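step=predict obj=Alcohol dehydrogenase-like C-terminal domain-containing protein n=187
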Amino acid sequence: MSCKHCVSGKSNMCQTLGLERKGVMHSDQTTRFSIGGKPVYHYCAVSSFSEYAVVHSGCAVKVSPTMPMDRICLLSCGASAGLGAAWNVADVSKGSSVVIFGLGTVGLSVAQGAKLRGASKIIGVDTNPDKQEKGKAFGVTDFINPAELNEPVQQVVKWLTDGGADYSFECVGDTGVVSTALQSCSD
């Protein structure tokens, strides 16, 4: 299995696998599951709530049987997406400023990636106040809770970074946050 994206080593896209949103297998466009004779579809070609699953080899990763499943499951998507965004996509540089919207698994992984790359200011933005302490453990240096502000988030970010962040990551999955994330960047 190879395509120009896979061979380049610079992309997470694949012409062979693509992004399957129809809930069927890549190989033959069918589902492997049924209940009472009716098909049960996958989400994005995975079967997260199945005891057993049949997947394309390009969608499987071998892990050590000694790894605790309640921890390794985070690596399948959130951690790799966050670290990959900080290291491979943005290529966060030493001494830079970073703002992260959403401190779930993806956002915390971005923070950890930025910290490991040497970012000097890592701002976490989340409406859950409990994320402030959690963020510190992953490298967040400053925390903003938009629910507690009287001014737009981007103004606070620009004040904290002397003009705007060098890198901005939207890790909420909310298209409404994208414009705020972009407006938080340096001009």
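step=describe
DSSP finds seven helices and six strands in the chain.
step=end
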